[in-house]
Write a structure and sequence with these properties.
about 80 residues; alpha+beta; three-stranded mixed β-sheet; 3 strands; globular
Length: about 80
Amino acid sequence: MHTVELLERALGAAASLGYHVRQDWLDGPGGGCEIKGEKWLFLDLASSPLDKLHIVADALSRERAGWRDKVDPALRQFLETRRAA
């Protein structure tokens, strides 16, 4: 599966977990945070799809494990491979 497709699926998983996503021109790669009790992902438009995927994957990896059964198998494999590295 292509990186862009994995990124789209990861963003969908993040949205289903309550993340708000903002893509903008940032002075850095971005990241995840919590603001006033809401989960946010900030992604730099200048970053590559792979860099954005890693940022979203970092946020997803901090979530509870119960959601992993609900994501696409290719995304789950990517996340598990990343975690093992």
